[in-house]
């Protein structure tokens, strides 16, 4: 098990905040060093570049998120419970790490091989979820459909409001940040309620 030093933990937390506020392109290593209360030379001792630091923040975020998703397959009482937990985990992740959706979308277009490597190194195995969904369809718990299509639909419903948060906040909520935040938090319930009649068998 990897043990991080207190300094490294401070750097990662400071970097997470700066990346959240300013994104990958807008973040500056000097600001991250200042927030971690260290000098820039020490920051570069731990992380040679901004990209390397961002990769570490990204991996840490997925290491928090994905174990809960995979664990929910075994611990959920049924597929409905699994979907609720999966959706809730995605929304909670993006509420806590709002820079991730934009990063994911930009990396998909810019360096898809790099993103795939980062995700796999974080222990993400989409095929496990696809096989689980297919099994539930074979058991008659879910309506018959392409399980890959279902997985992509769930992820899309979760990720888009966060990727387009600035536009949604301005255009739909007239700049009301608090109302927009409440709306995003309610996505945990509304996404499931939207999907339920479409995918749950005998609903």
TrEMBL record:
Residues 5-65 form the HTH tetR-type domain. It holds the Pfam family TetR_N. SUPFAM superfamilies: Homeodomain-like (SSF46689), Tetracyclin repressor-like, C-terminal domain (SSF48498). Residues 28-47 bind DNA. InterPro entries: Homeodomain-like_sf, HTH-type_TetR-like_transc_reg, HTH_TetR, Tet_transcr_reg_TetR-rel_C_sf. The keyword Cell membrane does not apply. Keywords: DNA-binding. Gene3D superfamilies: Tetracycline Repressor, domain 2. The keyword DNA-binding applies. One of its GO terms (molecular function) is DNA binding. This is TetR/AcrR family transcriptional regulator. It comes from Plebeiibacterium sediminum. The lineage of its organism: Bacteria, Pseudomonadati, Bacteroidota, Bacteroidia, Marinilabiliales.
């Amino acid at each position: 098990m990897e043990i991080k030093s207190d300094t490294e933990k401070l750097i990662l937390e400071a970097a997470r905040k700066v990346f959240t506020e300013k994104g990958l392109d807008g973040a500056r290593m000097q600001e991250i060093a200042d927030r971690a209360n260290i000098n820039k030379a020490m920051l570069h001792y731990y992380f040679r570049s901004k990209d390397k630091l961002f990769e570490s923040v990204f991996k840490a975020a997925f290491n928090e998120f994905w174990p809960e998703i995979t664990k929910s397959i075994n611990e959920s009482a049924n597929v409905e419970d699994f979907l609720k937990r999966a959706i809730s985990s995605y929304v909670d992740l993006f509420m806590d790490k709002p820079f991730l959706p934009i990063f994911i979308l930009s990396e998909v277009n810019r360096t898809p091989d790099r993103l795939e490597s980062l995700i796999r190194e974080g222990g993400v195995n989409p095929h496990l979820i696809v096989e689980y969904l297919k099994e539930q369809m074979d058991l008659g718990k879910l309506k018959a459909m392409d399980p890959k299509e279902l997985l992509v639909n769930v992820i899309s419903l979760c990720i888009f409001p966060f990727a387009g948060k600035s536009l949604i906040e301005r255009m739909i909520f007239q700049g009301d940040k608090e109302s927009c935040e409440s709306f995003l938090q309610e996505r945990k319930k509304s996404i499931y309620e939207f999907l339920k009649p479409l995918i749950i068998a005998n609903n």
